[in-house]
């Protein structure tokens, strides 16, 4: 597995992000679905990464700078045909290491509470993320879960 920064112009990446948006928005009320599309992920405060095996796209993830010492994990998604191969764990480990090199004292994430998010939530918990208050302007709701990892 090779992690590459960028790739938001690649049709395979665009298709995976579209799939991610459709599923997230299909399981969460519109006002509580905070997944980002391709254009939003181009923002200068976001570092976007894709995992590849040769020419096969395995998954994507991003790290957003919220402040000088706080980052946010965004757009974690494994391609459906590569689920349960360690792709998400590798991307998450990479983003956490990147956050440490940037001097962040914590990273946070917003995820869903619907059944489709269970595996991701278990992974975040296993890495050490704990529940916390809403952050970054997100509204609290029973459809969202806010987690933080102290670095």
Could you characterize the architecture of this molecule?
By secondary structure, the protein is α+β, with helices and mostly antiparallel strands. The chain contains 3 helices and 7 strands, in the order E-H-E-E-E-H-E-H-E-E. Strand 4, helix 2 and strand 5 (106-112) form a beta-alpha-beta unit. It is globular. The mean pLDDT is 93.
Largest sheet: 7 strands, mixed
Helix content: 25-40%
Radius of gyration: 14 Å
Secondary-structure element string? EHEEEHEHEE
Question: What quaternary form is this?
Answer: single chain
The end-to-end distance, rounded to whole angstroms, is 25 Å
* Unreliable residue stretches: none
- Lateral arrangement of strands in the main beta sheet: 1-2-3-4-5-7-6
- Which structural class do the helices and strands define? alpha+beta
Q: How many extended strands?
A: 7
Strand content: 25-35%
Shape call: globular
Mean pLDDT: 93
Number of H/I helices: 3
């Amino acid at each position: 597995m090779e992690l590459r920064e960028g790739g938001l112009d690649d049709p395979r990446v665009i298709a995976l992000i579209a799939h991610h948006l459709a599923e997230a928005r299909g399981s969460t009320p519109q006002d509580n679905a905070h997944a980002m599309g391709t254009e939003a992920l181009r923002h200068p405060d976001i570092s976007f990464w894709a995992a590849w095996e040769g020419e096969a796209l395995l998954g994507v993830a991003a790290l957003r700078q919220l402040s000088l010492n706080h980052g946010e994990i965004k757009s974690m998604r494994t391609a459906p045909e590569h689920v349960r191969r360690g792709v998400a764990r590798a991307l998450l480990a990479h983003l956490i290491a990147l956050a440490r090199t940037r001097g962040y004292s914590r990273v946070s994430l917003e995820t869903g509470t619907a059944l489709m998010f269970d595996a991701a939530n278990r992974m975040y918990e296993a890495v050490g993320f704990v529940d916390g208050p809403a952050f970054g302007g997100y509204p609290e709701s029973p459809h969202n879960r806010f987690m933080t990892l102290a670095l």
